[in-house]
Amino acid sequence: MIKNLLALSLSGLSWLALAGPFQSQQQLTDFTAGTQWFFAIDSDVLASDSRFRARIELHNQSGLDLPGGEQDWAWYFHSIRKINDTESHGLLIQHIQGDLHSIRPTASFAGLAQGESVTLPYYPSAPKLSYSDWMPRAFMVVADMPPAIFKNTDTEDYRQFVRPIATPEHIPLAEQADHPAATMTNARRYQQNSRITSGSALSTEALQRRIIPQPVQMQHRRGFTPFSAAWQLQAQGGLISEESYLSAQLSSYFGQPLSSQQNSPVIKLRLDNSLPGLKPEGYQLSIERQRIQITGYDEAGVFYGIQSLLALLPAQGGGEVQLPQLSILDYPRYRWRGMHYDMARNFHGLDVTLRLIEQMGRYKLNKLHLHLTEDEGWRLEIPGLPELTEVGANRCFDLSEQQCLLTQLGTGPYASGSGNGYYSRDEFIQLLRHAKKHHIEVIPEIDMPGHARAAVKAMDARYQRLLAAGQPEEARRYLLSEADDRSEYLTVQNYNDNSINVCLDSTYAFVDKVMYELQQMYRAADLRLQVFHMGGDEVGAGSWQAAPACEKLFAEPLNGVAGVADLKPYFINRVAQLSHQRGLAMAAWEDGLMADKVRPFRREQFDNKEVIVNAWDNIWELGYGDRAYRFANEGFQVVQSSATNLYFDHPHEVHPEERGYYWAARSTDTEKTFFYRPDHYYSNAEHTRDGSPITDLATLMGRALPALEKPENMLGIQGQVWSESIRLPEQLEPMIYPRIIALAERAWHKADWEPNKNSAAARQSWQQFIQRLTSVEFPRLAQAGVGHYVPPPGAIREQGQIKANHAWPTISIEYSLDQGQSWQRYQEPLSQDANTEVWLRSRSLSEQNSRIIRL
Predict the structure, then answer these.
(1) What element of type H or E holds 434?
(2) What is the pLDDT of residue 177?
């Protein structure tokens, strides 16, 4: 809120009377280039005082002395764990907003002479178990000089500014090697890999037919069909887009256009919704000697039949290939097969989004949920509201936040830092058209009333600009906050000023304006906006308690708003009504539609034809794991978005070097996603967050579990990737892939083995899936320019030898004896002296490498 900006600005003015330590920008740059900054954990295991212990180290090797005493300078750094005010060695650590903290000298600061070091202990609010919990780009500000980044922190290589996380004090459960939440070691991984029973590997022919996602029915006949660019393509009217898509794909694959000769063998695309057994989005694919026919229930069905045809092609194109003669009857398990992508916290650019759309289409996913707005950024140009992107799409060092948002998430002090940017209106229309081509519906999310700091600050900047221009009425038109709001709260992400004021009429003018502009963009893309997602999650408790506009609203008689508890339904009802008036379904995260911790709002209070709920918070021990069924039974349409299995921003493995947050599950690998059982929701309750086995879910949750009474309201499943720790596109794709491919398998195909994941059939299904994934899908991803994750190998030292293995087929292992300068193929145990450090890594057929392990 504005009150916080004023406090920061006033404290900044008090510095002006103080002397600065450096007299030139060059001195400041030399100091930050020559002074090393390190983060370190002293203990992630709760000590007797029930506090986690960490430290910041600075080592001055700059050749410059930093004078003592209260001076006009400050250091700034990012910490996702809030640090309460802490003073040590005359240096005061303070929290500002979100993850941004400052360190300022007090009168007792003795200075930091060249050659000296200082260590600042502090107590984070929660453990830091991964290197990605620390953010890069700490920086220093002196008086009105431009900030300077500490050079060793200006990198994405955590080893340059984070001390090793390697001792038992750093690692909870270090002594319990077999505990599910214990940190993975090279030896434990080797032992687990050794126990894997791969079963019978698929033959070359069977591997070609094992497409992902698996079809409902496949009947293969004897013989193969020679297939090349000598074939012609014919399509029924109304299938121009699908015909164009297939023609382009095959021309690229064969390196030349398809034949135009009438006597050539033919691929036929047609529509027929009367075929027996065919359902919406379904298709029939038949491959014969001289004819390939794809018949779709609808256009989407034709497109998915095309994907199955393309999946039967060998990964490497060129000349003539052999296709198995077969027939497929196929249709989706769910009508909502989604992927949520948060580019609001860190923006990654248009290209990576277009690639995501292409791969979603390839694997028959059909809903792209775009998280366009957050506390840390607004990522879509809205005509008429330029501050949303001029201010709200950029983070830098500006305590007034009139030019940009406060820096967060490792961006550093400059707008050129990571995570900044937005989709222009034209780019978003391009994105929508690309999605339409791939039969994907884009669901735009404008998160509110919480998680809205970027919008709040941008509209405050607009207010200040127009007020200065003598236009007070226009200035207030879309204002989302009050200057004299004294409400006090702190969100999970450590903001106290990120809630939209739900009592201002200008808030609803803003919401309607954004809805209108979204509809215009969809119309420009020849589409119709169907669903407006309003977020609604994680609103800070205490929001609006001391907001003058709300006090005024409470005083109005008979309006249904008597106190703060009425404000959540008041806001949601007004947004729902706005969306209904525009002919839109409304969607929200589950907590936005809960009347209390157990009961959803009544479905009848919303006029929208559909109200869609993302059921995400299934952390079983917190008592929320039955909400998906409660919402469906109440009449809401539910998308299972389970954090325990379907959050792809969580680490692939329990290890400090694996990127990601771990608040819902200590790790989520591809196998865990593959074995998600959406039709048997409670079967997924296997472990708590700390790895303890769940044997009685009802007792754990403290109440009887409701059954699913209205399965027709279960729309489908959706993967999620949140981007707090994902600053770059090359960091994003290994978090999404290959987990999204396992998601696609479960969203489209219901396996016969469900829900018994431990059956022989289930294990065989997984082994066949992973064989296809590593042998065929990884090379296809590489050809599309898409990165993916590769698990590291397991390895041990035993009787003077180094032995290594891998859990997945076709993955090779390489080793280096010169610390990564050169690599050799591992083929048999290595005889190595115990004092020789050996590096190992995995390598896929697509030439993607795993992280390096060291022995």
Answers:
(1) helix 425-437
(2) 60
Assess contact for 649 and 724: CB atoms under 8 A: yes
Model pLDDT for residues 270-321, shown as the tens digit of each residue? 999 999 999 999 999 999 999 999 999 999 999 999 999 999 999 988 899 9
Under the phi-then-psi rule, with left for phi > 0, alpha for psi from -120 to 50, and beta for the rest, what region is 829? beta
Residue type for position 806: H
Which residue from 136, 83, 164, 192 is spatially nearest to 667, judged by alpha carbons? 192
Q: State the DSSP code for 824.
A: E
Residue 284's pLDDT is 98
Question: Is residue 17's pLDDT more than 70?
Answer: no
Q: Where are the beta strands (DSSP E) in 47-149?
A: 53-60, 73-78, 86-88, 91-97, 100-105, 117-122, 139-142, 148-149
Q: Find out whether 397 and 460 touch, Cβ atoms under 8 Å.
A: no
**Strand locations in 405-559 (E):** 405-406, 441-448, 531-535
Q: Which is it for strands 100-105 and 73-78: parallel, antiparallel or unpaired?
A: antiparallel
Known catalytic residues are 538
102 touches 96 (CB < 8 A):
yes
- The answer for 108, left when phi > 0, alpha when psi is -120 to 50, beta otherwise, is alpha
Q: Are strands 531-535 and 441-448 parallel, antiparallel or unpaired?
A: parallel
Backbone angles phi, psi at 486, to 5 degrees: -110, 20
Least Cα distance to 772 among 678, 841, 719, 845 occurs for 845
Encode pLDDT of 761-790 as tens digits: 999 999 999 999 999 999 999 999 999 999
* Residue 740 phi, psi dihedral angles, 5° rounding: -65, -25
**Contact present, 813 and 790 (Cβ < 8 Å):** no
Matching residue, tokens 């780009």: 137
Name the DSSP letter for residue 153.
Answer: G
User: Tell me, what amino acid is at 827?
Assistant: Q
Q: Considering only CA atoms, give the Rg of the chain.
A: 29
CA-nearest of 574, 518, 590, 520 to 372 is: 518
User: Measuring CA to CA, which residue among 825, 837, 830 is closest to residue 800?
Assistant: 830
What's the rounded mean pLDDT across residues 721-725? Answer: 98
Q: Are 643 and 616 in contact (CB under 8 A)?
A: yes
Measuring CA to CA, which residue among 508, 474, 509, 481 is closest to residue 496?
481
Using a pLDDT cut of 70, give the percent of the chain over it. 96
Tell me the residue length of the chain.
855
Element (H, E) at 247: helix 240-254
Q: Is the dihedral of CA 492, 122, 651, 783 positive or negative?
A: positive
Model confidence at 1, pLDDT cuts 50, 70, 90, reads: very low
- Residue indicated by tokens 């829900």: 755
* CA pair distance 569, 539, nearest whole angstrom: 13
Q: What is the pLDDT of residues 500-531, one digit of tens each?
A: 999 999 999 999 999 999 999 999 999 999 99
- The per-residue pLDDT for range 68-125, each reduced to its tens digit, is 999 999 999 999 999 999 999 999 999 999 999 999 999 999 999 999 999 999 998 8
| Two tokens, residue 62 | 């700059």
Give the tens place of pLDDT for each residue, 200-231.
789 999 999 999 999 999 999 999 999 999 99
Instruction: Taking residues 689-701, report their average pLDDT.
Output: 93
Q: Are 135 and 80 in contact (CB under 8 A)?
A: yes
Under 8 Å between Cβ of 226 and 320: yes
CA distances from 296 to 241, 273, 301, 715 (A): 14, 7, 4, 21
User: What is the rounded CA–CA span in Å between residue 104 and residue 94?
Assistant: 8
Rounded CA-CA distance 467/475 in Å is 6
* Cα angle value 77/80/81 (rounded, 5°): 105
